[in-house]
Amino acid sequence: MSRAIQALVVLAVLAGILQWFVPRWTARALASAMARYVGGRPPSVTLTAVPFWELASGRFQELVVGMHSATLDGLSVHAARLVWSDGAVSVRALTHGRVVITRPGHLTVSVSLTDANLSALLTREQALSDPSVSVTQGAIALRGRLNLGHEVVPLDAVGALSESANHETLIYHPEEIDGLRVPLLTNVSLVNLKSLPLPVPLYIEQVTLSPGQLELTVGNRLTT
Question: How far apart are CA 93 and CA 103, in angstroms?
């Protein structure tokens, strides 16, 4: 075997090793950097970047992040999953433990919130006093005290969820109060994405209710 062929074989083997190692090393660095944002242990991170030298500029084909019992900007969530394709981050910032987005690409985030998570969210948003939330199939039961101007009234309601016209706010519509069906009295804002310190604008894509849990999916591509 000529030296030229030997050199090519060595280079091919080396490229294969680097293709295996570099994305995994970068994924571990991203997980460590994200740990400061999720308030707990580093999330699970998988990264696809072919060829691997694309990562020198921070670019990748797909990034998948999964986490359980995390805290996002002070909000406790049951679980969260992020899928990000055709994106890029600043390598220099990453080496200093920070995540800075340089190419938004296509980003989708799914967050699961339990009854307790939603109660804590309403307390944080000051939408209700002493809130208690119970999620059923297709509806949410809500108890607490509602501030209406200078009046504070008890609220024991069952209602549905919808999103605002600009897809930035998740809204609760009480439909029954004390077991009686009543006209729409007020709306309660559960989540306002615009008020959150997000690195890129996100919009509500889907809301799913199941017993004891709400799953909210948001993305950076507004579809109407």
Answer: 14
**Residue 80 burial (10 A CB sphere; 0-12, 13-18, 19+):** buried
The model's pTM is 0.78
3-state secondary structure of 2: coil
| Helices first, then strands: H and E counts in the chain | 3, 13
DSSP 3-state of 64:
strand
Return the number of other C-beta atoms located less than 10 Å from residue 38's C-beta: 20
CA distances from 132 to 114, 121, 199 (A): 11, 10, 31
CA distance 113 to 124: 14
In the chain, which ranges are continuous DSSP H helix? 3-38, 91-95, 115-125
Going by pLDDT thresholds of 50, 70 and 90, the confidence category of residue 64 is very high
